[in-house]
Amino acid sequence: VKITVTDNGAGQLVADVKYSTRDGDLNSISFVNKYQIIEDAQVILGGNKHYLGADLTAGQFEFGLYEDEACTKQIGQTVSNNVETIDFGRFVFPTIEYKNIRFEDLPATYTYYIREILPAGIQEVDDGNGGKDYVLNGVFYDTSVYKAEVVLTDNGTGGVNVQTLINGIKNDEVAFTNTYNIVSGTAVVLK
User: pLDDT tens digits for 21-34?
Assistant: First the structure.
């Protein structure tokens, strides 16, 4: 930058600014700042397992993570429950990572579905209220399907905010409850 100051003869100083590089003169200088996402993001999905009427054992029930609501396109491996008390456990899917996130792609929503996997040989029975129950060896299985939405947004500092909605509710939980009950060799639904 070369600035030449001269008297314009009217009692004022006038500055003449010239910009140049090694390759020649320029009309102006501009600075361009680029903002980009520099961090990856990740989320861990999972849920709770309740088992009423008998003691829960580790690995007793299995769960799947799916990319479609019909739960036909499974993502990754099936996982099973742990045991924290005699009637309560948790299950956790492997970490899902979001890499090479571009600012232009935010906000972004990724949708997954979580369900308990029904074992082979399960029987569909009338629940007495016009609906169906799914029973095997006295265990009444929870057939709920949970919709998990992972919302990624720019945090303004090159990172990503991750928010999880379960069935549209922030910080809600996934919880499956199975019930074990046998009376005189016949399965009975507890209401």
Answer: 777 777 777 788 88
